[in-house]
């Protein structure tokens, strides 16, 4: 009896240790995918004026060129060279799928980006990110998903609407007054009938966002959407990552 009980006890500890190790690995993967997406958005943001210059043709932002700069920002932010992440690991595989998605999106949008005679082209970080997330989902084939969402009253594109779980995490965790800035929330939670590990990485409005999302509330911004009246440092969005087990 005692021996059996002991064995079960040991077994449970091992199972939970394995579980915790797996969750930890998934948290690393989730935040890494968020970091890569933000790095790509940062390049688009830095090049926005160039992209929207009506006099300039080729912007020098091919998939390859953009990925090069994105990897550099990721490397500086995380201290990890994405090329050094073992391609045989789940992390390496998904990170490469995401980098391939970045290249795909940029190459597919060269005609728009390089169009002469048009100023604002609508190719902004949020649109870039949504397209990358869609291309990534096709490549990750049901193994993982990345989506940008946010507080329900801040959503512009219906595709970005938070699901029930995301809505709850945003309200009860990320928007809580004592939630530490920049801290991600993660949990193992069944999603679409499948066991999954989910990570929610918060994003905050900085000055550059407020031209479109700021005040006066209701005024139409350059993209044609009414501004939300958002303020500096408020929670603007969330990168939501699902890793299916
Ligand atoms: C040039 C105007 C503009 C700027 C600047 C801008 N956004 Fe947006 N943002 C948009 C538009 C337009 C969309 C909808 C994109 C789409 O079609 O998916 C959007 C979408 C988003 C979304 C996705 C959810 C949704 O509503 O569809 C988030 C999150 C977001 N923006 C946050 C930010 C943050 C944070 C910044 C600053 C770092 C920022 N935005 C800067 C115009 C802008």
Describe the structure.
The protein has helices at residues 2-46, 48-51, 63-78, 90-108, 110-113, 125-140, 164-174, 207-213; strands spanning 144-149, 185-188, 196-204, 235-244. The protein is built from 8 helices and 4 strands; from the N terminus they run H-H-H-H-H-H-E-H-E-E-H-E. It is globular and about 65 Å long. With 245 residues, the chain is α+β, with helices and mostly antiparallel strands. Strands 1-4-3-2 form a 4-stranded antiparallel beta sheet, sandwiched between helices. Heme C binds at residues 124, 126-127, 130, 148, 150, 154-157, 160, 203, 205-206, 208-209, 211-213, 221-223, 225, 236-237.
> What fraction strand?
5-15%
The number of distinct helices, counting runs of at least 4 residues, comes to 8
Mean pLDDT: 93
Task: Provide the low-confidence segments as ranges.
Answer: 1-10
The 3D shape can be described as globular
Largest sheet: 4 strands, antiparallel
Q: Class by helix and strand content?
A: alpha+beta
Helix content: 40-55%
Give the H and E element order: HHHHHHEHEEHE
List ligands, each type once.
heme C
Spatial order of strands in the largest sheet: 1-4-3-2
Span between termini:
35 Å
Number of strands: 4
Radius of gyration: 20 Å
The total number of structural domains is: 2
Domain Tll0287-like: 86-242
InterPro entries: Tll0287-like_dom (IPR021796)
Pfam family, one: Tll0287-like
Organism: Bradyrhizobium centrolobii
Features:
Tll0287-like_dom; 245 residues; Beta-Lactamase; alpha+beta; 50% helix; Tll0287-like domain-containing protein; disordered N terminus
């Amino acid at each position: 009896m005692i021996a059996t009980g002991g064995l079960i006890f040991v077994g449970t500890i091992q199972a939970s240790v394995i579980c915790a190790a797996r969750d930890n690995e998934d948290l690393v993967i989730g935040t890494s995918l968020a970091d890569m997406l933000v790095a790509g958005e940062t390049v688009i943001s830095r090049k926005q004026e160039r992209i929207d210059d009506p006099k300039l043709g080729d912007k020098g932002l091919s998939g390859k060129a953009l990925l090069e700069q994105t990897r550099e920002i990721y490397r500086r932010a995380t201290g990890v060279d994405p090329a050094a992440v073992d391609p045989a690991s789940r992390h390496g595989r998904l990170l490469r799928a995401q980098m391939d998605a970045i290249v795909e999106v940029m190459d597919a949008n060269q005609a728009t980006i390089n169009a002469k005679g048009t100023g604002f082209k609508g190719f902004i970080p949020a649109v870039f990110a949504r397209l990358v997330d869609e291309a990534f989902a096709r490549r990750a084939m049901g193994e993982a998903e990345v989506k940008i969402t946010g507080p329900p009253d801040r959503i512009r594109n219906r595709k970005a609407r938070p699901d029930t779980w995301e809505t709850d995490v945003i309200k009860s965790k990320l928007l809580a007054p004592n939630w530490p800035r920049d801290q991600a929330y993660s949990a193992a939670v069944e999603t679409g009938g499948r066991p999954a590990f989910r990570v929610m990485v918060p994003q905050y409005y900085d000055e550059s966002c407020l031209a479109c999302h700021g005040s006066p509330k209701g005024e139409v911004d350059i993209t044609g959407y009414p501004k939300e009246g958002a303020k500096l440092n408020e929670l603007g969005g969330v990168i939501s990552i699902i890793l299916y087990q």
